[in-house]
Amino acid sequence: MTARWRVRVFEPADEQAVVALWHACGLVRPWNDPHKDIARKRDFQPELFLVGVLDIDGREVLVATAMAGYDGHRGSVYYLAISPEHQRASLGRALMDEIERRLCALGCPKINILVRTGNAQVLHFYEKLGYTRDDAYSIGKRLISDL
């Protein structure tokens, strides 16, 4: 078996595999409809919705995702997911490198990432990539219900 890794922009045919990956990684919450999140991203900066695929013996297998955005002031990253069976193989690092490259090309000076409390494994991952904890609170207000 031979496998080759590459990152590309999300395509509509990826949707079911993306949602399945997000479920496998524990990223889906009852108050967020992943299909609506995908539709929203496809309407705004779709070039920053990336997937990582392995070409395994001529068959493309989606194993990673990241949604990024840039508002002219800060960049952000959401839905970073690596399939559990492919974690710890530097795919997350490679995907974040590509996100950082694309955001930097847009003139983005800083990336802010929200990590759920209690997710020490992900915090450690980002710290290894050079991210540090900011002295800030994350606050939010839902404007549109997905339920």
Brief digest:
The protein has four helices and five strands; from the N terminus they run βααβββαβα. It is of the alpha+beta class.
Describe this structure in words.
The chain is an alpha+beta fold and 147 residues long. It is built from four helices and five strands. It has a five-stranded mixed beta sheet with strand order 1-2-3-4-5. The longest helix has 15 residues, at 91-105. The radius of gyration is 15 Å and the shape is globular.
Layout of helices and strands:
Layout: E1 3-9, H1 15-24, H2 34-43, E2 49-56, E3 59-70, E4 75-82, H3 91-105, E5 111-113, H4 120-128
Parallel strand pairs: 4-5
Antiparallel strand pairs: 1-2, 2-3, 3-4
Estimated radius of gyration: 15 Å
Which secondary-structure class do the elements indicate? alpha+beta
User: How much helical structure, as a percent, in the residues?
Assistant: 25-40%
Strand content: 25-35%
Total number of strands: 5
Q: How many strands, which pairing sense, and closed or not: the largest β-sheet?
A: 5 strands, mixed
Widest β-sheet, arrangement of strands: 1-2-3-4-5
| Low-pLDDT ranges | none
**Mean residue pLDDT:** 92
Q: Helix segment count?
A: 4
Order of helices and strands: EHHEEEHEH
Shape estimate: globular
Distance linking N and C termini: 43 Å
Task: Give a quick set of tags describing it.
147 residues, alpha+beta, five-stranded mixed beta sheet, 30% helix, 26% strand, globular
